[in-house]
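Deliverable D5.2: sample structural annotation.
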Amino acid sequence: MNALVPLPVLLPLCATGLSLAFGTRLGRFQRFISVAVLTAVTALSAILMVAADRQGPLSVHLGDFAPPLGITLVADRLSGLMLTVSSAVTLCVLVYSLGQGMTDRDKETPLAVFHPAYLILVAGVSCTFLAGDLVNLYVGFEIMLVASFVLLTLGGTGPRMRAGSTYVIISLFSSMLFLTAIAMTYAATGTANFGQLAVRLAELPIGVQTLIQALLLTVFAIKAAVFPLAAWLPDSYPTAPAPVTAVFAGLLTKVGVYCMLRTETLLFPGNRIGDLLMAIALASMVIGILGAVAQTDLKRLLSFTLISHIGYMVFGIGLATREAYGGAIVYVAHHITVQTTLFLVAGLIERRGGTTELTRLGGLARAAPMLALLFFVPAMNLAGIPPLSGFIGKLGLMRAGVADGGGWAWVLVAGSAATSLLTLYVVAKVWNLAFWRAAPPGQAATGTVLESGDDSDDDSDPGPDGVFGTGDEGIGTTPPPAGQAVAATLHGRAVTTTSRLPHPMVAATAATIAIGLAFTVFADPLTSYTDRTAAELLQRAPYIQEVLGR
């Protein structure tokens, strides 16, 4: 069974080579490779999750080098669950992107870039979840980030290049900070292996421990978009195509949360900075959701809800109890699926209505009842309406806060409840404006070109909502007539609105909703699994022994 551990990393990397080799010459075979590999990775991840639950952590020491010299990959309950959920979601997003026609078929471009970049992204995410030392954790981050740079700037349009530049600068800064933290850790302990670090860090002076902990937390907080290090996200994600934005928002931020969970439980037990984490969690919740309340563009609104709900996960990490960790893990799995789904739905709304600007939408409940259903279910899940998985995760975290009984814990319980109510208000606003009310005059008609090669947007125009900074600057107050270009598409080709949404896009969105609903149907096995995962994180010994090969 241990031999299966590296396959979630190796299979996408090997498939990347095949995908590059075939390029656009055999586009169907290229798409088949991508779907087949991600299906295999999903199945392997589920097998590893079950095996780790039954047998304990699994590991592979590549090259048969004894730790800490070699590369160690470890699959325990936490990484198994993260692998399974993330691979299932990335498979759904890939199917969605195929329905949207996101392969690169431009004559000017010699290679189909999307599939190789997407597979490398999956390999980087898997490497991060399986890494048994800080260096390979960094390598996984860099693999993932290099691919994300390509995906975020596909098409080379002005808005995407500006957003991509911001993303690149922030990512490079966090990477340099990560390297600094690794260098300091190695200088202080003589190792980067998680098993050895778990022992040696405790022997260092408290000031050195705190400095290393602060550096690593800062790096992971940037990746996770935790306030106040999240200002880059609302301007970066909404400009990308819907599938890219969905996988970034749903998955990449959770990689940062996973790293916070792993390092805080394994390397820095004792919860020395729990109060600071809870204060940051409260700020993320409140400021993020207030930012969402102020938005009129759906993609930017969802970006702010993402920042807000990351606070729930940091809340669990800050409490640092078994029940809190269990609730945080449930919420991570839930949020990966629901946030991905909502951004996929945003892409469907844009294709059906011609925009994601809520002031220019309306009547979609009558015009596209299936689209209304696809939005309503994950929206209620995000708001935490019983008995959906969002409610289960929030309830677990709030119960952990009440059981803790501390001052910050009670403040976070109140903040969690208020954030949940404001989230309900936000999704209700989207429902009322985009779906329930009558269609406004001049709404985009079928055949309107959404995107083409013109990136000459005018940021001096505040847009239809009359407010700068909401993402609609330069769009104009009325939808463009049919055939008029307004922005740039993924590969410089026109995309038109349609009254009938592509079946693969609808099916993929429905599949992510089904995954979220499965968390509700199988809530008892899920919470039991996450409780065992939390116990394993607090025990530390099984993971340490497996990393060290004992």
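Annotation notes: The CA atoms of residues 314 and 341 lie 22 Å apart. The chain is about 70% helix and 5% strand.
The annotation will be released with the project's public dataset once the embargo ends.
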